Amino acid sequence: AARRGVSEAEPRRGDAIVIEELRLDPDNVQAFVNGESAELTPTEFRLVYTLAREQGRVLTRDELLQRVWGRRASHRDRTVDVFVRKLREKIDRQAPRHTFIHTRYGVGYKLEALPKT
Questions:
Q1: Which DSSP letter does residue 62 get?
Q2: By CB distance 3.0 to 4.6 Å, which of 24, 65, 70, 73 could disulfide with 77?
Q3: How confident is the model at residue 13 (pLDDT cuts 50, 70, 90)?
Q4: 98 in a domain, yes or no?
Q5: What domain range includes position 109?
């Protein structure tokens, strides 16, 4: 039987990721913060899941565009920045104890649970 290819950003069923109060559920394509749904769009979920699979490692905008959207960055492409802002609104603002989405200026983004101050 032929195997269907699974792209890097496409979560495999059952590979839930839990980082502190953030739970990513690929079966339902949804993120939960402190048990409550973050109500992410499928694209927002693919972005946060991609970051979570590389937890603590900075991913460049170009890497994220390739993995999540399947394309290369064009001049002044703000797609990743716009979606990161949406994730911060839906995840970091809801999380009581940690911030998860972090910017490495001039490089890209990473997901890491850091205590809120």
A1: H
A2: 73
A3: low
A4: yes
A5: 17-115
